[in-house]
């Protein structure tokens, strides 16, 4: 799919206005579905959102970014807090917030030998140096995922 052509199509169908700039995939986006850059007018989109949630949710994210885009070039309130932005977003049925991607990948699980409390960590810890925060018992590595 050519992203710029898709954004132009959504802009014409949902806003009846042309999209005159470029749209790019940005794999470095983590918590957001897309970004609008007022300096040069281009849009960035998170490909992980498209892969995880499909075309319907992605189209709503494109609408959200196009709300920023069109309001900015009409010299109206294009920020999230502005009334014009909220009204236009509701009109075109865009998403207010991007859905969360499951980025919680804890690799190490430690269990206290005394109280059996389980700790999940992304990094390995030194079990000779660190102890359970609840009872000060010794921690052991349970498994790696």
TrEMBL record:
GO terms for biological process, alphabetical: response to stress
Task: Name the predominant localization.
Answer: cytoplasm
Name what cofactor the protein needs: Zn(2+)
Q: Give the coiled coil ranges.
A: none
The annotated active site, in chain numbering, is 65
Q: How is the cofactor bound?
A: Binds 1 zinc ion.
Query: Which UniProt keyword terms apply here?
Result: Cytoplasm, Metal-binding, Zinc
Subcellular location(s) per record: Cytoplasm
Q: Which residues bind Zn(2+)?
A: 64, 68
List the InterPro entries hit by this protein, alphabetically: SprT-like_domain, SprT_Zn_ribbon, Uncharacterised_SprT-like
Answer whether the UniProt record assigns the keyword Magnesium to this protein.
Answer: no
**GO CC terms in record:** cytoplasm
Q: Which family does it belong to?
A: Belongs to the SprT family.
Q: What is this protein called?
A: Protein SprT-like
- Name its species: Streptococcus hyointestinalis
């Amino acid at each position: 799919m050519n992203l710029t052509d898709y954004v132009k199509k959504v802009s014409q169908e949902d806003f009846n206005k042309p999209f005159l700039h470029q749209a790019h995939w940005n794999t470095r986006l983590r918590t957001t579905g897309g970004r609008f850059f007022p300096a040069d007018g281009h849009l960035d989109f998170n490909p992980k959102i498209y892969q995880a949630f499909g075309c319907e949710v992605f189209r709503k994210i494109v609408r959200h970014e196009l709300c920023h885009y069109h309001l900015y070039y009409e010299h109206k309130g294009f920020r999230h807090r502005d009334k014009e932005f909220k009204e236009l977003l509701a009109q075109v049925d865009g998403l207010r917030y991007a859905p969360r991607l499951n980025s919680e990948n804890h690799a190490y699980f430690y269990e206290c030998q005394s109280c059996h409390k389980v700790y999940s960590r992304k990094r390995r810890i030194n079990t000779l140096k660190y102890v359970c925060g609840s009872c000060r018992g010794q921690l052991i590595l349970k498994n790696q995922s």
